[in-house]
Write a structure and sequence with these properties.
single chain, about 200 residues, mainly alpha, about 75% helix, about 0% strand, globular
Length: about 200
């Protein structure tokens, strides 16, 4: 299987699956393959390589461990509680694939390598934010979105990978650890970790 096909399957799993553990595995696959695609652009300078290595450690080690541990300790976090049924989630996957294939046809983007793939990862992250109600899904969706933005930055501006990797590392720190701390603080009053509770609080 090619990298593109693996990312396609893993991205579909992010949207369709409801198990937090399996979705985290899909996230790790996507981030790892994005790192493989982005790695050549980060080898030109030691600073670039340092940011890239730090980001990979955060995304591929720290974030999954934090998510798995949180799900292990909190039974309510083990399901992402989708807001829509399986048939609609499958339609969302098809829509994301179709939209990503249109990106290279946009003037100025056709010559950028992996433009459709970067768009697919970004759209998968956004879809996870919309499809699932569990607050952990919001954390996972933002992490996937960050990886897509990182890939888009590397392929569209390879001369500035340091800024892209620094921003991605900051996103991972904020989303994973601050996000999980907020979820942990809320779990006693919102045992289902349902974002509908947040919407009601917002008014």
């Amino acid at each position: 299987m090619t990298i593109e096909l693996l990312i396609l399957v893993a991205g579909a799993g992010l949207i369709v699956d409801t198990s937090t553990a399996r979705v985290v595995v899909a996230y790790v696959i996507i981030v790892g393959l994005v790192a493989v695609l982005a790695a050549p652009a980060t080898l030109s300078a030691s600073l670039t390589l340092a940011f890239f290595a730090a980001t990979c450690v955060l995304k591929l080690v720290a974030a999954p461990i934090a998510l798995w541990e949180f799900a292990r300790r909190n039974a309510a976090a083990r399901s992402l509680r989708p807001a829509i049924g399986l048939p609609v989630r499958l339609i969302v996957v098809l829509a994301v694939v179709f939209a990503a294939q249109l990106v290279p046809r946009v003037p100025g983007l056709g010559s950028i390598s992996h433009a459709a793939l970067a768009a697919y990862v970004v759209l998968c992250g956004l879809a996870v934010l919309v499809v699932h109600r569990n607050l952990l899904a919001q954390v996972i969706g933002l992490l996937v979105l960050s990886s897509g933005v990182t890939l888009a930055g590397v392929v569209s501006a390879p001369q500035l990978p340091e800024a892209v990797e620094l921003g991605a590392a900051f996103d991972v720190l904020v989303v994973t650890f601050i996000g999980l701390a907020l979820v942990r603080a809320m779990i006693t009053e919102n045992p289902l970790l349902d974002i509908e509770s947040l919407r009601r609080l917002r008014g």
